[in-house]
Amino acid sequence: MCIIMCMNTITISVAEGRATLCELIRKVKSGVDVVLTNHGKPEVVMTAYRAKGRPWRVSKPTDPARFGDLQSPVMEDWQ
Fold first, then answer.
1. pTM across the whole model
2. pLDDT digit string, tens, across residues 10-56
3. Any residues with CB less than 8 A from the CB of 47 and at least 6 apart, and which?
4. What is the CATH number of the domain that holds 28?
5. What is the dihedral of CA 12, 17, 24, 31, to 10 degrees?
């Protein structure tokens, strides 16, 4: 029994997932997340591998209203 939780997530039992592994891999590669359950409890989430890129950083905040004051909370004296 396959339960569809939302458009990008499918919940399926481990036993059924074992029987349909190739089909599940195709679905995961297309962007669907698969939750494998054991006795109705979520155990494992299968997601597509995504290579990590460089983290997004702001070298100098150009708009303090957008980024907030990043230094004042850190530079305050501890009492």
1. 0.56
2. 999 999 999 999 999 999 999 899 999 999 999 999 999 887 776 66
3. 28, 33, 34
4. 3.40.1620
5. 40
